[in-house]
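Changelog-adjacent note: as of this version, every example in the card shows the full chain rather than a window. The one below runs 365 residues end to end.
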Amino acid sequence: MNESENILSPNEPVIDDPAMDDPAMDETAMDETALPDDINRFKDAVVMPFVMGKPSARSADKVLDRTQTEKMSVEEFIDSGATVPMGIWRGEAVEPQTRQPDISLNRLPYIAATSICHVGAVRERNDDSALIFESQVGGHFNMMPFGLYIVADGMGGHSDGHIASKIASRVASHEIIKNIYLPLLRDMDGGSPTPIQEVLSNAGQKANTAVYEIDPEADSGTTLTGALLLGRRLHAFHVGDSRAYLFSDGKLEQITKDHSLVQRLLDVGQLTNEEAAYYEYRHVLLRALGQADHVEIDTYMRRLPPNGRLLLCSDGLCGLISDHDMQTIIAENDEIDIAVEELFTAAVAAGGHDNITAIMVDFAF
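Full-length structure tokens:
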């Protein structure tokens, strides 16, 4: 029922009043002479004012004529407890009271991600894989934000690099979702009974087994770098030379450590950072998935700042652009979509000879 309909007593007939439908009649000139003679007969035929969007169940003991109602404000009419005969109020409803509670819209916590996974400027096949899984559940029984982000870089010199990266990223994500996210979704107290770092390590090991079993003689392999954002905690797992970074307060910090020959030589002081950038064997890995039936998985955990960004990327990005240049690009772009596009453009401009993959996550708590 809309606000302009008359609500009649269930025992009274609907009266067709010609004056109500005459567009030529001046509403302000209408008085009781335009109503049926037996006005008392319609004492109970009242328009019920709408208060807070609902009909008011007023008593018909106090009936006001039009002259009286015109002198009253809406608030005074509501407070009077009165009603009016059908026709005097002309079906007009009292304006709803729209008092709003003093609240502010709080969109925190917040997570959002974007990505690019591109073949690059030289390669004919994309051996990289990127995976994003995010969940935010609102309502009375809300859940902490959940974000899972994985980058895998299949070894380009091997025939099945693209298959290895696909299998590794999907097997690892399946294990993490099954053992961490689904228990949370089922509202199990404390989520998974297995510690998160152990779940991540097991996920990496199962991914390694799945890649290794493609063909143990094929020497297939891939890197695997993942970040799990659970509430304000960051949990990362890593094998190879893809990387995870944290950007906060204008600074870009590398979280993971490369499992590469060049990193080993840097650690023992046999190479400088400048020499490492042009070292002939800088792409040689000392640890990767699929090289043996077991692999050691690095795991990390830290509390995130109130706001910032995560960056996961393959060496097709961080191997061509310095950390300083990546930091500058991220700092200069407020939108993560634009920041990722700028990073990609810079990698292509630097040669783009490898596949280029980047996932960027914006977060605020």
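Structural remarks: The chain has a mean pLDDT of 80.
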